[in-house]
Each structure stands twice: as structure tokens, then as C-alpha cells.
Amino acid sequence: MLDTHPSTVEINPPPALSVKGVCKSFGGLQALKDIDLNIIQGTIHGLIGPNGAGKTTFFNIISGLYPADAGEFRLLGKPYKPSQVHEVARAGIARTFQNIRLFKEMSVLENVMVARHVRTHSGLLGAIFRTPSFKREEHEIKLRAYALLDYVGIERFASLKAKTLSYGDQRRLEIARALATDPHLLALDEPAAGMNATEKVELKHLIEQIQRDGKTVLLIEHDVKLVMGLCKTITVLDYGTKIAQGSPSQVQQDPLVIKAYLGSSATPTTDSSDQKS
Length: 277
Description:
Elements: E1 17-26, E2 29-39, E3 44-48, H1 55-62, E4 70-75, E5 78-79, H2 85-91, E6 93-95, H3 108-116, H4 123-129, H5 132-152, H6 167-179, E7 185-189, H7 197-212, E8 216-220, H8 224-230, E9 233-238, E10 241-246, H9 248-252, H10 255-262
Parallel strand pairs: 3-8, 3-9, 6-7, 7-8
Antiparallel strand pairs: 1-2, 1-4, 4-5, 9-10
Helix pairs in contact: 3-5, 3-6, 5-6
């Protein structure tokens, strides 16, 4: 099981992530306009919408890749400024990318160990002089990396180069690497992209296990059927604006969502291959 951050039990805990009035423009194009979003701790929250809706821009903002033009951010109830990627990771948000970004010439184990270093304390001098505390910490990092590879089901590939893994297993490695930072919020950007039907079922089980083990998950996914089966709450964006939010059943019956996806009276519940998203 995953290590979760110890905390006292709260009757009404703050959202894992709360954003208000988030805006982002690129030149004359407004990619996001006044986005408000609250993600409940310990849930799987879906973020969907057609191509160009602003989903990945939102991910890039909360993970520190893009600065927001406006907006307020809170992480576990505390003010949070997503300014730089490494600071975002330390604050407790980890993400994967639509296009896999692994260190392909490094081993599977090393990929996870590199990510884990965001939680280390030895510093540069410890690494240079190989101090006892550095060696002890490196040993702990390796053990944690092995445990995470086992958790996502690819420990047997630990010594292989990342580039030799199948596409589905590279996705699993990305998730293990993100989990290595001990995030409060795990943001998954198109984790099922390129997967076959069997791999998608296995991915669904993994995400459900991550949620059961206490993590909060924010999910962008073009496979609407997968999102509907995973998420408690779904937010829908279209042309940078939030057009709907609610349970899967509420969202799939919303006229604005139906129009955004299909431009007809059909509902967005078919397989992703039939979607414009």
C-alpha cells in the first residue's frame, strides 16, 4: 500500500485542491476563463472536454509549467502558488504527461529513484562526499522505488532501460515516478492514451487502488467511458470555460456537454474512438 500523509481526522476537511477565477491567455486566445474548481480529498475527479477545451493548459498551470494570468490557489486549504515545477512537487502535486516523458536510457528503477530525490535531505555536499547519511538515504530511496514498481506491477523490469518497456508499462512507470514524490494530489494527463482494452482495464484497477490507498486523483482522459466508470465528480470544459460539473450521470445528461461533444442529442457515453475529444 502507499504511504499516506498522517493527519488528524477532520469532519469537513478542506479540498485537496481549490482554484478560483483562473484565467490564461496566449496572445489573443483565451485558453481558460474564470475557472473555479474544488477537488474533494480522497476522490477521483475527472476533467474532460473536446480538443482545445483547456484541460492540459489547466494541468500545466497547477503543476507550474505555465503561470496563470489570474486566479487563487489553495492546496489542502493553504494558499499555494504554482510557480516552479520542483516547488509544486514539494508542495504535494505530481503529474504525468500526455506524451510520455521518461529518462529512456536510464533503468526503470533509476527513473523512480530520480523522482524520489525531491523528498531527500542530504544535499549536494552529501552526494559529493558520499556521507553515511547520504548512503543511508540512497538505500531508502532504492527500497522505496522497488516498492512502487511492485505497486504498479512492473518490478520485474527494474533493471531494464525504460525505453524497452511496452507502451502500457511505460505509462505505469510514469505513475510510479509521480507517486515517488509522495503527492497529496496525483494529476494524470491521458494515462490511457495508446493503451489496448486489456491495458485500460488494468489501468482502471490501478487508479482505483491508488484512490483506496488515500490519494486524490485528478484525471484528464479522452476515453469518456473510462472516466464515467472511475470518477465521483466530473468537470467539463469547452473553449476554456467550465460548462458543467457533477456526477457522471448528471454530466452525461447535461445539454451543454452533449452539444460540446457531439453537437446532437446523443450522450457522451460511447467508446472514446467515437468521440471528438
